[in-house]
Amino acid sequence: MDRSRAAREGRRYAAFYHGFKDCRAGRSSLENPYPPGSKEAAYWEIGWKYAGDEP
Fold it and tell me: What is the pLDDT of residues 28-43, one digit of tens each?
């Protein structure tokens, strides 16, 4: 894996994990800190929804 791809995947994972932690902390889905329409915003939302589906 080249360096740029590793950096991109790392940012996406970080956004997912940030969304997961925000949901667990009780934050609203409207508090997405990433720019609307960005891939990071989408991954944050996926992480947020994933945490909400966990028991």
Answer: 989 999 999 999 999 9
